């Protein structure tokens, strides 16, 4: 076990902005970053795997997890529950690894209450028109669900001010590079703070 706790990174942004795409590319490159797999009651999409993309739960199972306080945060999004397993996040951070959450805004704000030291990143679309194109082109939602997701997107964008960083997802590789530089800067910042703190303690002992 490492001495230092890991850093919690939270990536949010409206549906279809490219969170999943950016996160997958980031994990192709990142070394010591652990992805927290969420729980959801939504149906599995073609190509998704239980325990890889999500842990798929019934509403009853999910409500049981809420009741037993096993979720760090949860939210209802377009008629389904989504939530982050508490034990995985706490244990992984305690073991010194960084943890990466990809969650929507309501949940991110709950995480902020518990982990104010977390690093909150908002992925922003180049335009609302482009956002709509991405959701439609992905082809995973009916037109009614696309409308719901766009309505949700407007509400989510209003909460952007609560985040530490905003990254525009114009091109995937640019967005990934920006997220990586945020991760590096946060580590440097922490090292600097620790050094200054150690020096302060040493000076006091003199
Ligand atoms: N609060 C919360 N939101 C989550 C969690 N997991 C995923 N989400 C978010 O739920 C929303 C819907 O996810 P999903 O159905 O996979 O659709 P997609 O993001 O449009 O591909 C997205 O904004 C996800 O980031 C979670 O554990 N907690
Ligand atoms: N920078 C980008 N430029 C163009 N298309 C993108 C970009 N990022 C993601 N996409 C596409 O947009 C759609 C939505 O991306 P996805 O990662 O599923 O979004 P989210 O997880 O935020 O809902 C996908 O078809 C994806 O291939």
From TrEMBL:
InterPro entries xrefs: GK/Ca_channel_bsu, Guanylate_kin-like_dom, Guanylate_kinase, Guanylate_kinase_CS, P-loop_NTPase
Reactions catalysed, as given in the entry: GMP + ATP = GDP + ADP
Cellular component GO terms held in the UniProt record: cytosol
Keyword match Transport: no
Pfam families: Guanylate_kin (PF00625)
Function: Essential for recycling GMP and indirectly, cGMP.
Name used for this protein in its record: Guanylate kinase
Species annotation: Virgibacillus profundi
